[in-house]
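To whoever is covering the structure queue this week,

Two jobs came back overnight. Logging them here so there's a record in the thread.

Job A:
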Amino acid sequence: MDIYPETTAETVYSITVCLCGSIMWAFVVAATTSLLAGMDQGAQRARNEAEMMNHFMRFRRVPRRLRLMVNQYQQYRWSCMRGMDEANALATLPASLRLQLHVAFNEKIFSRVPLFRDCEPPLIVALAERLRPIIAIPGEYVIREGTLGSAIYLISRGRLAVLKKTTRGTDAAAPPPTTIATLSDHDFFGEASLVNASVTSASVRALIFCDLMYLTSAHFKEVLTKFPDFNKQVAERAISHRTQEERQKNRQEPLVRSNSFLSGNMRTGSMHMMRSHSMMRSCSFRAAGNRSSSRLSTMRTSLALVGDVPKRARPSFCRARTATVLMKPKATTTKS
């Protein structure tokens, strides 16, 4: 049974209650919508950026494989940072807090690097201030073997493979490089490029998405100018590193010389063997010729002796032999 207002006051009251209820419902719906939109605002912005990037790559006719790699990179960045730029986020903080955060981020890595293990806190702060972040995608070569090193890399998160080229094979069919080590969280590589500008002895390739921090040699030199004691330690370490490299080279040179000497001896030995073999063959041929010539000479002498003996004094077999021998020239004269 419905209830209807009968008086004017009841009518005004019911209208006021309906208006308040509708306003409250609209407020609740709007607040809930804005809350959900605020929660998904970053994801929506990331989706918009990804859609714009995909549209741009389709317009430029980028291969599908490369487009998938770009999308994977954007998804990884969103899953780790939620669309936040680290440099812009730390730029709003005071300098003291920013430096403390840099040290806290890389404290474990600095403690594992022998060059920075016993450094003073001001030096660690100066180094941490000059670190720069980088993301390596799977399959990317961070450094390549045989190139000039220019930075040290600190691994915050990820896994990388250290590859070394093999000396077997030719340039046309070179074998693939072999994996000699695997690096993971809080490891480092490229320290020798800071101590002395040397050529890298191996390649480093990312196996998965990796968060790295790198310090260039130019920034490292800036730190050395501000800390003379540390500069002396680095110079001593560079001298010891060079002496170790020279010792390794000196150890390898005798091996190379011995190998070349052995190969030369093997070649000369094989040549001597070939010569001796040819000489033995020639000697055997000469011996066979001498034997045949000696047999002919003995036959001739025997025939000559048989010819000097009278026919009556000869044996029967000698007579037959001389008869056959003496009959041959007569046959040849008749034929001629």
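Job B:
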Amino acid sequence: MSFKEFLNQEADDDRYGPDTNKVRQYLKGFNTADCLNMTFYNIHTLVPLPDGVTQLIIGNENLVYINKEAIPDSLVSFTCRKSPSLRRLPDMPSGLKRFAVANVPVTKLPRLPIGIESIHASCTEITELPPVYAGIINISVPGSKLRRLPFKHMPSTLKQLDIAGTDVKVIHGLGRGLTHLNISNTKIRVLPPLPYGLLNLFAANCNLLVPSDGLELGANLEGIRDYGLRLLDWHYSAWEKERSIERCERIKHDLCLATCKSPIIDSFID
């Protein structure tokens, strides 16, 4: 069914869910310059959408199916959240830049276009990511069941990587463009050398993480003026035990530490 056909359906046609007619009335007055937010409606299947829609937010407890034909080729940003009955997502259009799912029990992400810039998949059942390409900027999958990263050589364009609470155990290398890294609550044992542009590092509750060749904690922190690091959290990780941090008193005013309770960490804060 096309979008025009959907608009011309009888008012009592509720094939897409109890709120089908409310959605129909909403779309009749929809301005494509606006973000299309469908989270307010109780529908179990995504209705056909008009051409020109660039941003879509969808999700409710009864949503079970999203038809590929319902998603317009003009879509640039797709968000689906809080849909416990949704098990599968359709392949995304070639112009999509931002993809996000949260609290959706999908086990596999759909095929994403070459130009994708941001992937967010929190609290999902995914164990792997689809291939990512050179233009990727953000990968955020906290609370998912991800087992491995989709690359061995991190793209230099990647700025944010959040794998907190996942099953990832190995990071082969960090890209030179990375500014935000969150590995909290993982079983990662070794981190590669930190890139100089890194601003935020979260490694809380990494009980297996220990300093390694080229990543001795004190050595990294002593060069913090070059790194520009401003936020650091390794609370309850093995790094807390490294007394080498005490050698870094001279840079204590360069650090802004959040949610850190270690007495070693507290020695940085006046």
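Note for Job B: The chain has two domains: 1-126, 146-270.

Please reply-all if you pick these up so we don't duplicate work.
Q.
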